[in-house]
C-alpha cells in the first residue's frame, strides 16, 4: 500500500515537472520572438531621426555611403524581394502541387515512402551550395538561353528559390490532401466521377486552405532567404523592371552592409529598419498561413 | 523566421572560433599571450598578401602567432576602434568620421604604408578596346556611358561589375576616378576580386575593377579570359598598363594607391616586430612577388618615423 502510494506521488511530481518544462519552453519561444521584435524596433527607430519616413518607403535609391548625399530608399529592394519571391512561387507552386497530388493519390504507398523523404532531403541542402549552383550552372544557362552577357538576374534567384521552396510546398500540400476524409473521395467515385475529376473537383477544393498555407509558407521561406540570392542575383541597386535584370533583395542588402557599417550611425539603424520591415513581412505571411491552416482543421472536423 | 545564413555570419563564426582558440591558447601559455599573439583584420585586397607575410614571419619566429582576417577596410578600421584587433589593414585612408570616433574612444591610430597597389580595369579578352582615359572609366562606372559603341567597341550594353561598399577598392575608385560621385545603380556588386574576374571572364561586355595582385595566377602569369586595360590620365597623356611596374613606381600609371596598416598608438612587441619585417627588404620582396609594388622612399621614411 505504502509503496504504491509513493510511486503515485512520484509519478505526479514527474508529470507536473514535465508539464512545466513544456510550458516554459513554449513561453521561452514567445519571449524570444517578442525580444527579437523589441530589439529590432528599438534599434530601428533612431534611423528616423535623420531619415524621412516618406523617403524610406517611397524612394528607389539606396546609397548610404554616397559621397554626394546618403540616400535611404527601400523601394527597389522591397520590390526586388517580392519579384524574386513571386517568380519562385510561380515556378514552384504548380510543380509542388502536382507532386503532392501524385504522392497522395496516385503513387503506391511504397513509392510514396521512398519519394517523400528524398523530397524532404532537398530542404537540407545548404543555401550556399544552392547559390554556388546558381553562379556556376543556372546563371550561365540563363545567359545562353536569353542571349545575354551574364545570368546574374532575378530569374536566377527565382529558379533557385523555387528549388528551395519545393519541399515545404510539397510536404504541406500532401498532408492537406491526405487529411481530406476518405468518405469525400468515396462519395465522388460512387456518383461516377473518375480519379482525375475526384482530385480536381473534390479533394483539392476540400484541401484548399492547407494548400494555400503551403503556398504561404513557401513564400515565407523564399522571401527570407539570403545567401542564395546574394550569390545569384548580381546585387545591382537599380529598380527592377523585369526578371532578366540584376536585383538586390532586402536580405542580401543587410548581409552585404551590416558587416562593415560603423556601429550606432544612421546607416546602422537604417539596416535594422530594413530588418524590421522584413520581420513584419514574414510575420504577416506566416500568421496568415497559420490562420488558414487552423480554419482547415476546424472545417474538416 | 529569419534566414540569415549569410557569408558575414559564417565569417563571424570563423572569427569567433579563432578568437576562442586564441583565448584558449593564451590561457595555456599566460606568459607569452601578451606579446606573441596578434590579430590582423581588414582589407580583402590585402588579406592574401598579409597572410603570406605573416606565414613567412611565423616560420622565422616560432612561437609567434598572427591571425589574419579579411572583411574589408571599413571592417578592419571599425575593429581597431572597438579594440577587437591589433592591426587594421586598409586600402583607403581613414575617413574623418572614423578618426573622430577613434579619438572619442581613446584610440590614437598610427598609420604605416606597407605596399603600393595599382587598381586595374579589366574587360573580357574579346573586347576590342585596349585603352581608356580616367574620365572615361569614371563615366562608365557612374553610368553615363552605357554602350561600348560610344567608345569604339561593339554595339553592346556595358555590363558593370564592382565590389560591395565595404571594400577599400570601391571607395578608392569612387574617390579617385568617379570624382566622389555616385556609382551607377546598375553595377553588379560582387563578393570579392576573384568573383569579379570570374564574371568578366564569362561576360563579353563586362568591365570590372580589381587589385593588381589578383591579375596573376599562381605561376605569375596574367589570368586567362581577361584583358587588363591601359589607362591614360587624360586625352593627351600616354597610356600605361598596371602590369608595367616601372610605370607604377614612377606614378605614371594613373590609378594607384598605398596599402596601409594601422595600430592603436605606437606599436610594441610582436606587432612592431611584424611591421618592421614587412618593411624590410625581405618583406618588400614578398610584396613584389605577390603582384603589388614596393613603397617609395618618402612613404618609407614616414613609416620609420611612426615606428619610433
Set down the secondary structure blueprint:
The complex is a heterodimer of chains A (301) and B (308).
Chain A: H1 2-44, H2 53-58, E1 62-63, E2 71-72, H3 75-106, H4 109-121, H5 127-145, H6 154-179, H7 182-190, H8 195-206, H9 208-224, H10 227-232, H11 250-258, H12 266-300
Antiparallel strand pairs in A: 1-2
Helix pairs in contact in A: 1-12, 3-6, 3-9, 4-6, 5-6, 6-9, 7-8, 9-12, 11-12
Chain B: H1 7-28, H2 30-36, E1 37-42, H3 44-60, E2 65-71, H4 73-82, E3 87-90, H5 96-104, E4 109-124, E5 131-133, H6 134-142, E6 159-163, H7 168-176, E7 188-190, H8 193-202, E8 206-211, E9 226-228, E10 230-232, E11 239-240, H9 245-249, E12 256-264, H10 269-279, H11 281-289, H12 297-307
Parallel strand pairs in B: 1-2, 1-3, 5-10, 6-7, 6-8
Antiparallel strand pairs in B: 3-12, 4-8, 4-9, 4-12, 10-11
Describe the structure.
With 301 residues, chain A is an all-alpha fold. Chain A folds into two domains: 2-49; 54-300, MetI-like (MetI-like fold, Orthogonal Bundle). Helices cover 75% and strands 1% of the residues of chain A. Chain A has helices at 2-44, 53-58, 75-106, 109-121, 127-145, 154-179, 182-190, 195-206, 208-224, 227-232, 250-258, 266-300; strands spanning 62-63, 71-72. A two-stranded antiparallel ribbon of chain A has the order 1-2. In chain A, a hairpin with a 7-residue loop joins strand 1 and strand 2. The model of chain A has no long low-confidence stretch (mean pLDDT 90). With 308 residues, chain B is of the alpha/beta class. Chain B has two domains: 7-115 and 260-307, Periplasmic binding protein-like II (D-Maltodextrin-Binding Protein, domain 2); 117-256, D-Maltodextrin-Binding Protein, domain 2. Chain B is built from twelve helices and twelve strands. Chain B has helices spanning 7-28, 30-36, 44-60, 73-82, 96-104, 134-142, 168-176, 193-202, 245-249, 269-279, 281-289, 297-307, and strands spanning 37-42, 65-71, 87-90, 109-124, 131-133, 159-163, 188-190, 206-211, 226-228, 230-232, 239-240, 256-264. In chain B, strands 1, 2, 3, 4, 6, 7, 8, 9 and 12 form a nine-stranded mixed sheet that branches. A three-stranded mixed sheet of chain B has the order 5-10-11. In chain B, strand 10 (230-232) and strand 11 form a beta hairpin. Chain B is globular and about 60 Å long. Chain B starts with 6 loop residues before the first helix and ends with a helix. Residues 1-10 and 26-34 of chain B have low confidence and may be disordered. Classes of the chains: A mainly alpha (301), B alpha/beta (308). Chains A and B meet through helix 5, helix 9, helix 10, helix 11 and helix 12 of A and helix 1, helix 4, helix 5, helix 7 and strand 7 of B.
Amino acid at each position: 500500500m505504502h509503496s504504491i502510494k509513493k510511486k503515485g506521488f512520484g509519478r505526479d511530481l514527474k508529470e507536473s515537472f514535465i508539464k512545466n518544462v513544456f510550458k516554459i519552453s513554449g513561453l521561452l519561444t514567445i519571449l524570444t520572438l517578442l525580444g527579437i521584435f523589441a530589439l529590432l524596433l528599438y534599434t530601428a527607430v533612431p534611423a528616423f531621426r535623420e531619415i524621412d519616413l516618406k523617403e524610406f518607403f517611397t524612394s528607389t535609391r539606396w546609397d548610404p555611403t554616397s559621397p554626394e548625399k546618403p540616400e535611404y530608399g527601400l523601394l527597389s529592394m522591397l520590390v526586388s524581394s517580392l519579384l524574386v519571391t513571386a517568380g519562385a512561387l510561380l515556378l514552384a507552386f504548380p510543380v509542388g502541387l502536382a507532386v503532392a497530388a501524385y504522392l497522395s493519390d496516385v503513387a503506391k504507398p511504397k513509392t510514396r515512402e521512398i519519394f517523400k523523404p528524398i523530397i524532404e532531403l532537398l530542404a537540407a541542402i545548404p543555401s550556399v551550395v544552392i547559390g554556388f549552383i546558381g553562379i556556376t550552372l543556372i546563371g550561365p544557362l540563363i545567359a545562353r538561353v536569353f542571349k545575354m552577357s551574364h545570368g546574374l538576374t532575378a530569374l536566377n534567384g527565382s529558379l533557385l528559390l523555387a528549388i528551395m521552396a519545393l519541399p515545404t510546398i510539397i510536404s504541406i500540400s500532401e498532408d492537406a490532401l491526405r487529411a481530406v476524409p476518405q468518405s469525400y473521395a468515396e462519395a465522388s467515385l460512387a456518383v461516377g466521377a473518375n480519379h482525375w475529376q475526384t482530385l480536381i473537383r473534390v479533394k483539392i477544393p476540400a484541401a484548399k486552405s492547407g494548400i494555400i498555407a503551403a503556398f504561404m509558407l513557401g513564400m515565407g521561406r523564399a522571401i527570407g532567404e539570403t545567401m542564395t540570392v546574394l550569390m545569384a542575383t548580381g546585387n545591382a541597386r537599380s529598380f527592377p523592371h523585369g526578371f532578366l535584370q540584376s536585383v538586390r533583395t532586402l536580405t542580401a542588402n543587410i548581409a552585404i552592409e551590416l558587416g562593415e557599417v560603423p556601429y550606432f550611425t544612421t546607416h546602422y539603424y537604417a539596416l535594422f529598419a530594413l530588418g524590421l520591415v522584413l520581420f513584419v513581412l514574414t510575420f504577416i505571411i506566416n500568421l496568415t498561413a497559420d490562420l488558414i491552416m487552423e480554419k482547415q482543421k476546424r472545417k474538416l472536423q | 523566421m529569419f534566414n540569415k545564413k549569410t557569408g558575414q555570419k559564417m565569417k563571424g563564426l570563423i572569427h569567433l572560433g579563432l578568437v576562442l582558440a586564441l583565448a584558449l591558447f593564451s590561457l595555456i601559455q599566460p606568459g607569452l599571450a601578451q606579446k606573441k599573439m596578434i590579430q590582423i583584420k581588414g582589407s580583402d585586397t590585402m588579406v592574401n598578401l598579409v597572410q603570406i607575410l605573416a606565414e613567412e614571419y611565423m616560420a622565422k619566429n616560432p612561437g609567434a602567432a598572427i591571425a589574419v582576417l579579411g572583411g574589408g577596410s571599413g571592417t578592419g578600421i571599425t575593429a581597431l576602434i572597438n579594440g577587437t584587433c591589433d592591426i587594421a589593414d586598409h586600402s583607403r585612408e581613414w575617413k574623418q568620421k572614423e578618426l573622430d570616433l577613434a579619438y572619442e574612444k581613446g584610440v590614437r591610430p598610427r598609420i604605416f604604408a606597407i605596399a603600393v597597389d595599382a587598381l586595374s580595369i579589366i574587360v573580357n579578352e574579346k573586347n576590342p578596346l585596349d585603352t581608356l582615359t580616367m574620365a572615361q572609366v569614371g563615366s562608365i562606372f557612374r553610368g553615363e556611358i552605357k554602350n561600348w559603341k560610344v567608345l569604339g567597341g561593339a554595339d553592346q550594353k556595358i555590363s558593370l561589375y564592382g565590389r560591395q561598399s565595404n571594400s577599400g577598392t570601391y571607395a578608392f575608385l569612387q574617390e579617385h576616378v568617379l570624382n566622389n560621385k555616385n556609382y551607377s545603380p546598375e553595377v553588379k556588386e560582387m563578393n570579392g576580386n576573384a568573383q569579379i574576374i570570374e564574371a568578366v571572364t564569362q561576360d563579353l561586355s563586362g568591365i570590372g575593377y580589381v587589385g593588381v595582385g589578383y591579375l596573376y595566377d599562381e605561376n605569375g602569369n596574367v589570368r586567362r579570359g581577361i584583358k587588363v586595360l591601359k589607362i591614360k590620365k587624360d586625352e593627351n597623356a600616354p597610356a600605361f598598363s598596371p602590369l608595367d611596374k616601372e610605370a607604377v613606381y614612377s606614378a605614371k600609371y594613373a590609378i594607384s594607391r598605398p596599402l596601409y596598416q594601422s595600430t592603436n598608438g605606437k606599436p610594441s612587441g610582436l606587432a612592431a616586430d611584424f611591421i618592421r619585417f614587412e618593411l624590410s627588404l625581405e618583406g618588400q620582396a614578398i610584396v613584389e612577388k605577390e603582384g603589388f609594388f614596393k613603397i617609395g622612399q618618402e612613404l618609407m621614411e614616414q613609416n620609420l618615423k611612426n615606428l619610433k
